[in-house]
């Protein structure tokens, strides 16, 4: 009867968790990852493009990113885009590729990054709670419209609450893993 609403709620909770995963990719740990430069925009051929559309980005070592433009004439534009992105790293060009060396993280910077991860986790949990509220409201509305028994509506609402607890637990687990990764690598 209310399976559609329950499935919708679960899908929205999974989407919130997926957004948290995406947010975590942008928070750097001690090792290099291509996600660090995913948001970098490059002015190329008269328009603004993501870095991934003008160059390949690889991780040759744990603390270095290698950016190889597909068109050598784009090297200066890519360098400027990386500098303007304010990544905390200075791009080093050898005329054909650009290297970004990740500086080691200080304890203070690690704590700031853990704070960013905590903030992203809290934002995801708030989104999940909003999903719960909206889903319970939809269930109650449908229950009244279809004249469903109160216990069916109540059980469905409790299921939504159980889904929320499960997904909040997953978010907390992900936060703990991310913070351990930041503090210990």
Content-based structural category: alpha+beta
Taken from the alpha-carbon principal axes, the silhouette is: elongated
Number of domains: 2
Task: Indicate the radius of gyration in whole angstroms.
Answer: 22 Å
Architecture of the largest domain, according to CATH? Orthogonal Bundle
- The CATH homologous superfamily of the largest domain is called Ribosome-recycling factor
Distance separating the two termini? 49 Å
Q: Can you identify the CATH class of the largest domain? A: Mainly Alpha
Count the E strands: 6
Mean pLDDT, as a whole number? 89
Strand content: 5-15%
Order of helices and strands: HEEEEHEEHH
The total count of helices amounts to 4
- Please name the CATH topology of the largest domain: Topoisomerase I, Chain A, domain 4
What are the segments in which pLDDT stays under 50 over at least 5 consecutive residues? Answer: none
Across the major sheet, the strand order is 3-4-6-5
Please give the largest β-sheet: 4 strands, antiparallel
User: Fraction of residues in helices?
Assistant: 55-70%
Describe the structure.
With 185 residues, the protein is of the alpha+beta class. It has two domains: 3-26 and 106-184, Ribosome-recycling factor (Topoisomerase I, Chain A, domain 4); 34-101, 2-Layer Sandwich (Gyrase A, domain 2), CATH 3.30.1360.40. The protein has four helices and six strands; from the N terminus they run αββββαββαα. β1 (41-44) and β2 (47-50) form a beta hairpin. The longest helix has 39 residues, at 107-145. The mean pLDDT is 89.
